[in-house]
Design brief:
It is a single chain. The protein has ten helices and no strands. It has helices at 2-30, 37-44, 48-54, 58-82, 87-104, 106-119, 126-135, 138-153, 161-180, 191-198. Helix 2 (37-44) crosses helix 3 (48-54) and helix 5 packs across helix 8. It is elongated and about 60 Å long.
Length: 213
């Protein structure tokens, strides 16, 4: 019985992931208003009524996508913050892994596209709006702290750390949206281009580390 419950729960979670993944691409390309439950059901390959077995509405799906995306990014940034490496290496690690993720993960680039649209829209569920207001600036604050620590060590260029964080994340988000709105054959630029914007001469070496996600 316990094994059956575990199997059923795993199947349920797999179904929910399929719904979320299909909905993500529809919301990112068509928008919330133009996407219908029947569109999501068709993309998943299940009956429309079955979707309601997992989610009460498309708004609930939308809110969960926003919540999952923000929590995953913030968890990754907190993990980066707590690593023992010096600040400039953390910046290199983050840039390298984010560039790799942009190159390889269509879900990630579409998520960036979804968050950007949601942030600038008034026609989204209130719960989604609250999540964005509460959590969207956390990555900016944490990267700004790393930039400030690097300036104290003399490895990060002199500029307002908050402004450096804005340049960091808007560059990442812009590149992700650029990739999401073009053919899969589009390649991303060399990660070193962005790294050199933040690191003083002599600190541009790269490390094959993983930015946790």
């Amino acid at each position: 019985m316990a094994r059956s419950r575990q199997l059923n729960e795993r199947m349920r979670e797999e179904r929910k992931e399929q719904i979320l993944s299909s909905a993500l691409h529809l919301f990112a390309t068509k928008g919330l208003f133009a996407t219908k439950i029947k569109d999501i059901a068709k993309a998943v390959g299940m009956a429309q009524g079955l979707v309601y077995h997992y989610y009460e509405s498309k708004d609930e799906i939308y809110v969960e996508l926003i919540k999952n995306a923000l929590e995953k990014l913030n968890t990754a940034v907190f993990s980066l913050r707590d690593m023992p490496q010096p600040p400039h290496e953390k910046i290199i690690m983050a840039i390298e892994q984010l560039f790799k993720t942009i190159e390889s993960s269509h879900d990630f680039t579409q998520t960036c596209r979804l968050i950007a649209h949601a942030t600038n829209s008034t026609a989204i569920p209130e719960d989604a709006r609250k999540l964005i207001v509460e959590k969207r600036d956390i990555p900016y604050r944490e990267i700004a702290k790393i930039m400030a620590d690097g300036q104290k060590e003399g490895t990060i260029v002199e500029a307002d750390p908050d402004e450096l964080a804005v340049v960091f994340w808007t560059s990442i988000n812009g590149l992700a949206i650029y990739k999401a709105t073009r053919q899969d054959t589009t390649t991303v630029p060399d990660a070193g281009i962005l790294a050199r914007m933040f690191l003083k001469e002599g600190n541009h070496g790269t490390k094959s580390k993983t930015f946790p996600g």
